[in-house]
Amino acid sequence: MSEKTENNVRLGIIGLGAQGGMYAGLLADGRIPGMSLGAITDNDPAKKELATQKHAGVPFYDDYIAMLDSGEVDAVVTTVPHFLHPEMTITAIGKGIHTLTEKPAGVYTKQVEEMNDFAAAHPETTFAIMFNQRTNPVYTDLKALIESGELGALRHTSWIITTWWRPQGYYDQSAWRATWGGEGGGVLVNQAPHQLDLWQWLCGTPKKVFAKLAFGFQRDIATEDEVNAVVDFGEGATGHFMTSTNDIIGTDRLEMLFDKGKVVVDASKKVTITRLSEDERSLSDKMTMQDVAKLFRGEMDPSDVYTVEEKEYESVWGQQHIDVLTNFAAHVNDGTPLIADGTEGINGVRLASGMQLSAWTGREIDLVDYPAEEYLAELNKRIKDEGKFPARS
Question: Does the keyword NAD apply (predicted)?
Answer without folding.
Answer: yes
